[in-house]
Amino acid sequence: VQLQASGGGLVQTGGSLRLSCTVSGRSFGYSSIGWYRQAPEKEREGISCISTSAFTSYRDSVKGRFTVSRDTAKNIVYLEMNNLRPEDTGVYYCATDLGQASSYALCHSRPTEWGMGTQVTVSS
Asked: Considering 25, 54, 89, 110, which has the largest number of Cβ atoms within 10 A of its Cβ?
């Protein structure tokens, strides 16, 4: 499986971005996909995950601001980020564990399959 995140950029506080994770390989149809963030000098953390049945899981700090979705026809998972804050700054990665059905479990673990990240910078 290969994952590629894109869509990052520089925005002001309160702005919006939409990240895309393009997934290649058969895993898209039977694995949850997650978004993770690594802020400067901090550990990587799970932000939002979505199962094959579109069940979602969110970190408390992004609930109500971020929305994860998946387009099965295109093998893409999106992360719509609104009302961005400086503390949302970091490198965003998408990742998966092959065969992991639970979005909650994926978001609370360290997946084995990672894509290259995309930088999100929110200026104050």
From this structure: 89
Which DSSP category does 116 fall into?
A: B
Helix (H) or strand (E) holding 40: none
Alpha carbon dihedral 115, 119, 60, 43, in 10-degree steps, equals 70
Mean pLDDT of each 10-residue bin along the chain, 124 residues long? 95 98 83 95 96 95 97 94 98 94 92 95 96
Output the pLDDT for position 118.
Answer: 98
* 62 touches 85 (CB < 8 A): no
- Gap between the Cα atoms of 35 and 91, Å rounded: 10
Tokens 């360290």 identify what position?
A: 110
Report the 10 Å Cβ neighbour count for 89: 19
Give the model's pLDDT for residue 28. 73
Query: Residue 70 and residue 124: Cα distance in Å, rounded?
Result: 30
- The residue whose two tokens read 């970091």 is 90
